Amino acid sequence: FVLNRTGTWNGNYTPLLSTLTNVDNSLFAVTGGAQLTLPGVTSYVSTGLRDDLNFTVMSADGVGSVLSFPNLTSMVLGNPSGWANNFHKLLAANGGVLNLSAVTSLTMATGSADYTIIEAVSGGQINLSSLPALGGGRQNIIQDGGTINLSALTTINFTPNSAGYPSSFTF
Q1: What span, in angstroms and rounded, lies between the C-alpha atoms of 81 and 96?
Q2: Which of 26, 49, 97, 167 could connect to 158 by a Cys-Cys bridge, CB 3.0–4.6 Å?
Q3: Contact 25, 45 (CB under 8 A)
Q4: CA 60 remoteness from chain centre
Q5: CA-to-CA dists, residue 150 to 48, 55, 132, angstroms
Q6: What tens digit of pLDDT does each residue of 105-115 get?
Q7: Strand order across the 35-37 sheet
Q8: 15: pLDDT confidence band, cut at 50, 70 and 90?
């Protein structure tokens, strides 16, 4: 779903999102200064998304835009039956903030030809400050005028995805 600063949802309906616990295979985008916090979410998988498309699974775009999962600890991305080599992106852009500060595990689904992009651009900030390791498939990290907090990172163990493509870092 997409939330903008006005918080408009099909008329004047505003759902109670703070009680959500299962958001698997959902896509999240906040823009225009909107802020969304989902404290009940502790795990997330995108393994049920189509295997022939690229996905930005979580994004915060614009000054004041904040997407926060303060209790999310585990993420598994990518379609295990995928053959198409598509991305599953985490994005913060133009001053937006993506808070994934409790994440301790971020991996690709076993057998997936897909890959993760962690991208902070133009003042965007991604907080992955509890993540001790990156690995479990192809992951690309792009920091172009933004900030990615990986302060707990001690291990990088990348292997090519099932399509044979390597990981990359751009800072």
Answers
A1: 32
A2: 167
A3: yes
A4: 10
A5: 27, 22, 8
A6: 988 777 666 77
A7: 35-37, 66-68, 97-99, 125-127, 147-149
A8: low
